[in-house]
Amino acid sequence: MKVIVAGATGFIGGETLTHCLAHPSITSILVVARHELSKALSADPKITTIIHADFSSWPEAVLEQLAKADACLWYINVLSLSPLSLLTKSSTKLSIGGMNAKFPDAATARKVNVDFTLAAASAFAKTLVPPAMAEGSRFRFVYCSGWATENDLQKPLRFMRDSRRIKGEVENGLLALSERYPAFETLMVRPAGVLPKKTSLLGLVLGLGPCVRVDAVAAVMVEMCVHGSQKVTVENDELVSRGKELLEK
Question: How much is the pLDDT for 189?
Answer without folding.
Answer: 96
